[in-house]
């Protein structure tokens, strides 16, 4: 029935809310919803002109109802499409803000336009972050608690240098370091904070 | 005037200037903290604290310079300097966090209410120049995304993104009825839905933002 396809899209969007990464873009589903909406629009036009030409006034409750439902379905489809896209765009925004790398797998799950959006939004962000360059606007949104923390290395990352010395990041090694120095690495997933 | 008098005058003015500098610093930090709390609790966007942030950023830069200069001396292994540096850096971290959270919270609200802010003169005034540029460009990017993805393929009558009427308003406005915790600075009275509510000094209340909005703006109430 009308709106079933949109329902499927919304279910996908709901599931995406709980995921870390975006699932594959529902190209076919979106296309069919757009097609359905255009068909509905044609139907609505036909109904309206039919009523006019045959003189069956729009006062007939049945005709009115039909027209109304058609319009409602169209609007609902539009709303679902926008909600789906908006959710995905918001998730991408979050990733870009926290400097999380958008890896190849993730890129493959995005539509072509979403990929272009990422590039342009990243540019916008770099400009904005640059205007307040003393503060890392992409940094942690949790208030700084301890000065020094224990961290464990999740992936090999070579050597990093801090004021307190050079650390060799090999997998599963543990270090006691200043939180401010390693915040970036924790964000990117190389280190894990131990509490 | 006598030379001694001139000296005494000079001493007192410079000392009082130093003292007021100190108090200005603590006051500024308190103001920043309060601005941050407000921005996070209140549902709408508040005016951008341009001057306050400028002053604080200036001091931050000086602190960063200070840290860099003294880090070079670390090689002398003077324990006192190390401890001092750690303390200075921790404070710097905290101030940076406040500013970061302040800016990000504002941007989140701006992103949420972009279409509404854009159409309203008053709201636009609350944004800084940077934020206005960001909002416009982000909206453009999003519109481009929607359009190319599916919007341009929909029938023309459906292509608007700011439809009012209908069942659901497409433009999202900040919900001014959201409740907030407030503390009273002085005795007063508030009108809520035709009823008058008395407010005691130093009392803590939770009520709708719409009711206390004016008082918070004037400063006789603070948000917690």
UniProtKB/TrEMBL annotation, chain A:
Domain of life: Eukaryota
Name recorded for this polypeptide: Unnamed protein product
Species, as recorded: Ambrosiozyma monospora
Automatic annotation (TrEMBL), chain B:
UniProt record similarity statement: Belongs to the GINS4/SLD5 family.
Gene3D superfamilies: 1.20.58.1030
Keywords: Coiled coil, DNA replication, Nucleus
One protein family per Pfam: SLD5_C
GO terms of biological process kind: DNA-templated DNA replication; double-strand break repair via break-induced replication
Keyword Ion transport set for record: no
Chief site of localization: nucleus
Coiled coil: 50-77
Gene Ontology CC terms: GINS complex
Subunit organization: Component of the GINS complex which is a heterotetramer of SLD5, PSF1, PSF2 and PSF3.
Domain GINS subunit residues, every copy: 52-148
Domain (DNA replication complex GINS protein SLD5 C-terminal): residue spans on this chain: 174-221
SUPFAM superfamilies: GINS helical bundle-like, PriA/YqbF domain
InterPro entries recorded: GINS_A (IPR021151), GINS_bundle-like_dom_sf (IPR036224), GINS_Sld5 (IPR008591), SLD5_C (IPR031633), Sld5_GINS_A (IPR038749)
Function text: The GINS complex plays an essential role in the initiation of DNA replication.
Matching CDD domains: GINS_A_Sld5 (cd11711)
Protein name: DNA replication complex GINS protein SLD5
Subcellular compartments: Nucleus
